[in-house]
Specification:
It is a single chain. By secondary structure, the protein is mainly beta. Helices cover 5% and strands 45% of the residues. The chain has one helix and six strands; from the N terminus they run ββββαββ. β5 and β6 form a beta hairpin. The two termini are 16 Å apart.
Length: 84
Amino acid sequence: MTVSVSGDGGDSWTSKQITPAGTNGKRADPVRALSGCTVRTDSHGVAYLFAEMFENPTLVGLPTHGFHVMWKSFDGGSRGRRCG
């Protein structure tokens, strides 16, 4: 999962990869994968990234189980911290 941020209204962007490229249910963690994401900020400038982590149904069968994960950044995305 990669997050891109702009501090100048979209004229320039900085990207930060916050999960390994293999976090797709096939490599780094064969059971779990990430899907979708939403970015929100609060009035103090803290950025929050939310995503859904779910189990690979071909490995665990149905029904699968999933949960939400959250990353927080207090410094504009320079360093991320996973919560969840």
